[in-house]
Write a structure and sequence with these properties.
Largest sheet of chain B: 2 strands, antiparallel
CATH superfamily of the largest domain in chain A: MetI-like
Number of domains of chain B: 2
Number of domains of chain A: 2
CATH class of the largest domain in chain A: Mainly Alpha
Number of helices of chain B: 14
Largest interface: A-B, 98 and 99 residues
Radius of gyration of chain A: 26 Å
Shape of chain B: globular
Oligomer: heterodimer
Strand order of the largest sheet of chain B: 1-2
Shape of chain A: globular
Strand content of chain B: under 5%
CATH topology of the largest domain in chain A: MetI-like fold
Strand content of chain A: under 5%
Distance between the termini of chain A: 26 Å
Number of strands of chain B: 2
Number of strands of chain A: 0
CATH superfamily of the largest domain in chain B: MetI-like
Chain lengths: 309, 285
């Protein structure tokens, strides 16, 4: 795969000297790449190994089989986190997908001020989840936020207290997450809409298709590969969500808004159960792989089809 | 592209799109307004309201006087920490990513595809899988609770993104250009300096913006590996909320939130095009 080495072709300096001369470039190429690849592989393998040991406060060797996994999965913390992940993952992905698609279609109507609007929909992506979480924790706090405002305006029986409602609290995370990242879905969808074949649209127009039919029959079907990408990226975000919940609900009320990443942190750094924490982290990775591997396979098939077509 | 739409439909489109835009702006507007209201005023009404008189004082307090975890120096030291972590980590990871991206896309060497493939896996590997190993590595090299430790982490982890961005950009440079330069006797660095780097500004801007916003906004490593005075501003904001849980200071807290969000917001406003390009480049792996 690598090409003929030109230094050898020139041939003048002795091999050892040549090697020495090329040492700096060799190091510049390999050191960063090896640090990056090396830390990824060794860290992942090491965490997987720890998840099978009886480690508590410090890593120790030993083999406990699947015990840490069964123990983690038996905790209420993990069960709630997993259920929340299902609700949050589906709710957030679906809502941000729909919002993003709606915004993209609206922006695609040749409207004035498109750039300003696009900037408005995307600016939440530039702030941290900590900031997003903090701000929404104020807005959704019934004592000082939207509920207080509406109550103060005269509608005293108005209730919007999901933040302190065990059953609904996870939806506050959904709201904040949709606010933060639906603009991202919009950006990808808009790029997709803009790359729809113009001839296709012309043909449909000649056939007399109205705007709604045009979207349903002609334009939206071409967007589904982008939709898959958006879904996968948003799911990846949902599975690893940590900061947002820490800032918004702190995992509460009680443990009502736990998510896997918080459980990992809790085991590792609050309870000092390293092996359990590592097992929870590996479980997180498995959930992620359940999303990413089919996606990778799908991409692979698509590429091959494109290559053969 | 959609011709012949009639006026009422267009009015509806404008109405809906601006209503949603307003909804997106509300949280920001609320925080800006609150940052100019006194704690008493907020307590009497709600977080959402127009300031009666402008309490600019909130910013001074948030910046330099406020107490976070027994230290009353405002969020200034934490902003400084974030800057001291973000700037070096951004510069170094971008530089190394650019060279490595050039090496795997244009220079080529034995094993380049393999190593590149593994490096890009870093985009998917959750931070939770690296938390414990980093704890041990930082302890062993004596960088626990230091900004240098965070710089190291963000530099190495950032490589996955910077190498990917640069490689995908450089791959479009014609291989013949490099081959011709090599036949002329140009070496690794000379080709990088003379051919690759002059073509790089767009991708370097995208990469720098991406790295800057991500590292500035990062929280998990900051809160795990640093404590007290060494924490970056994201961790300090959380500590601040916890510290004032009894006597809320929403005006000052809002000012602190604005200050903490300002660097990345400015980067976004100034380099919006490149910011979006980074988002989509990261998406279309």
């Amino acid at each position: 795969m690598s090409e003929a080495v030109p230094a050898a072709a020139r041939g003048s300096p002795p091999a050892a000297l040549d090697l020495l001369r090329r040492l700096p470039e060799f190091l510049t190429i390999w050191v960063p790449l090896l640090l990056s690849a090396g830390h990824l592989v060794s860290f992942a393998l090491w965490t997987i190994w720890v998840s099978f040991t009886p480690s508590t406060l410090v890593p120790v060797s030993g083999w406990t089989g699947m015990r840490n996994y069964t123990a983690v999965m038996a905790t209420r913390n993990w069960q709630i986190a997993f259920d929340n992940l299902l609700v949050f993952g589906c709710g957030f992905v679906l809502l941000s997908l729909l919002t993003g698609l709606l915004l993209a279609i609206l922006l695609d109507q040749r409207i004035r001020g498109e750039n300003v609007l696009r900037s408005i929909f995307l600016y939440p992506m530039a702030v941290s989840f900590v900031v997003t979480g903090t701000v929404w924790s104020w807005l959704l706090n019934p004592g000082i936020g939207i509920q207080k405002l509406v109550n103060g305006l005269g509608w005293t029986s108005f209730r919007f207290d999901w933040l302190i409602d065990r059953d609904m609290a996870i939806w506050t995370v959904v709201i904040a997450a949709v606010w933060q990242s639906s603009g991202f879905a919009m950006a990808l969808f808009l790029a997709g809409l803009r790359s729809v074949d113009a001839d296709l649209i012309k043909a449909a127009q000649i056939d007399g298709a109205g705007p709604i039919r045009m979207y349903r029959r002609v334009i939206l079907p071409t967007l589904w590969p982008i939709t898959v990408t958006v879904v996968v990226i948003q799911l990846q975000f949902a599975i690893t969500t940590f900061d947002l919940v820490r800032a918004l609900t702190g995992g509460g009320p009680g443990i009502a808004t736990q998510l896997p990443a918080l459980v990992v942190y809790d085991f590792m750094f609050q309870r000092g159960l390293l092996a359990r924490g590592a097992a929870a982290a590996v479980l997180m990775l498995l959930i992620l792989l359940a999303v990413l591997l089919p996606y990778a396979a799908w991409r692979y098939v698509q590429h091959r089809q494109a290559a053969h077509a | 592209m959609r011709e012949g739409t009639f006026a009422p439909g267009r009015i509806l489109v404008y109405l809906v799109v601006w209503l949603i835009a307003a909804a997106y702006l509300v949280p920001f507007a609320v925080v800006v307004l609150n940052s100019l209201r006194t704690a008493e005023e907020i307590a009497q009404t709600s977080m959402i309201g127009w300031p009666k008189q402008l309490a600019w004082n909130n910013y001074a307090t948030a910046w330099a006087d406020f107490c976070v975890a027994q230290t009353c120096a405002g969020i200034r030291p934490y902003m400084l920490n974030s800057a001291l972590v973000t700037i070096p980590a951004t510069v170094v990871s971008t530089l190394l990513g650019s060279i490595a991206g050039y090496a795997v896309s244009l220079w080529r060497f034995r094993g380049d595809r393999w190593i590149y493939g593994i490096v890009t896996l870093g985009i998917f590997l959750p931070q939770q899988m690296r938390l414990l190993p980093w704890t041990i590595v930082l302890r062993d090299i004596g960088l626990t609770n230091t900004l240098t430790g965070l710089v190291l982490i963000h530099t190495i982890q950032g490589l996955s993104f910077t190498v990917l961005f640069c490689r995908n950009y450089y791959i479009a440079i014609p291989q013949e250009l490099i081959r011709a330069a090599r036949i002329d006797g140009a070496g690794f660095y000379r080709i990088f300096w003379r051919i690759v780097l002059p073509l790089s500004p767009p991708i370097l801007i995208v990469t720098v913006i991406w790295q800057f916003t991500h590292i500035w906004n990062e929280f998990l490593y900051g809160v795990t590996f640093t404590t007290g005075q060494q924490q970056p501003v994201t961790a300090a904001l959380i500590a601040l909320s916890a510290a004032v849980a009894d006597i809320p200071q929403h005006g000052v807290q809002s000012a602190a939130v604005i200050i903490a969000a300002l660097p990345t917001l400015l980067v976004y406003l100034l380099g919006g095009k490149y910011f979006v390009r980074g988002l989509t480049a990261g998406a279309v792996k």
